[in-house]
Design a protein that fits this description.
Elements lengths: L6 E4 L11 H9 L2 E4 L2 H10 L6 E3 L5 H13 L4 E4 L12 H9 L4 E4 L4 H9 L6 E6 L4 H12 L4 E6 L4 H12 L3 E6 L7 E6 H6 L10 E5 L5
Parallel strand pairs: 1-4, 1-5, 2-3, 2-4, 6-7
Antiparallel strand pairs: 7-10, 8-9, 8-10
Helix pairs in contact: 3-4, 6-7
């Protein structure tokens, strides 16, 4: 395929590099530029599929430095693909500011769907999937975290939170403090060799946490009060 003049939002694998669509690889091959959160990480994916499209670093923090350049390229007829380190861009990852600028400039934005840790964990958790609320990473302040958990925990939906390994125990304790001993799913290393989805009461999962520090991030799902 030949890419159109557009900004493509391309989902990339969350672990296993085979989890990418044929359409996504074709877009990455055919665009003029790829902008990514970490070019070193993205290059591993491109090398796997022999894609040689030029790479440029993009993060929301440096948006103001390169936004004009990217938007001007798009206005001039170029095609650009945006990817993040893993999963679907903008979902707790960079890209919002660039997409907003493109929309404001009248540039076509094309989503290329694919892997998402949120959807992958939710689909295999056994918790209700009819309604869910995604909170991303919670604030660092304990007071703010508890307030968010209490507020969203009153909704008739499964809650989904991202958490770092060193704060997982704290999160489970906060869930119990804010919501009681609800059923929780803790997903880690999704699509990788040591993929794990553990489901149980928050207290049970807290008791089962080992001392060995895990790598990567956790996707934590919290069941609604009654289902």
């Amino acid at each position: 395929m030949e890419a159109q003049n557009a900004l493509y939002i391309v989902a990339s694998p969350i672990g296993n590099l085979a989890d990418i669509s044929y359409r996504a690889t074709e877009v990455l091959r055919s665009v003029n530029w790829i902008v990514s959160e970490d070019t070193r990480q993205t290059k591993k994916l491109l090398d796997r599929y022999s894609i040689t499209t030029p790479l440029k670093s993009y993060r929301d923090q440096i948006h103001f430095k390169i936004a004009d350049e990217l938007i001007n390229k798009l206005k001039a007829g170029a095609s650009i693909a945006l990817v993040s380190d893993s999963g679907t861009p903008l979902i707790s990852d960079p890209g919002y500011k660039l997409v907003r600028s493109a929309v404001a400039a009248g540039i076509k934005v094309v989503p290329i769907p694919g892997p998402s840790a949120v959807i992958s964990a939710l689909s295999a958790s056994g918790l209700p999937t009819d309604k869910f609320s995604f909170l991303g990473f919670l604030p660092k302040s304990s007071g703010q975290r508890l307030k968010l958990l209490k507020g969203y925990g009153a909704l008739d939906s499964t809650l989904v939170v991202y958490e770092s390994p060193n704060r997982l125990a704290r999160l489970l304790e906060e869930i119990m403090a804010a919501l009681g001993d609800r059923e929780v799913c803790v997903a880690s290393e999704m699509t990788k060799l040591f993929e794990s989805l553990k489901v149980g009461k928050a207290s049970q999962l807290l008791a089962g946490i080992g001392t060995k520090r895990q790598r990567g991030e956790y996707t934590v799902l919290i069941a609604k009060m009654v289902y």
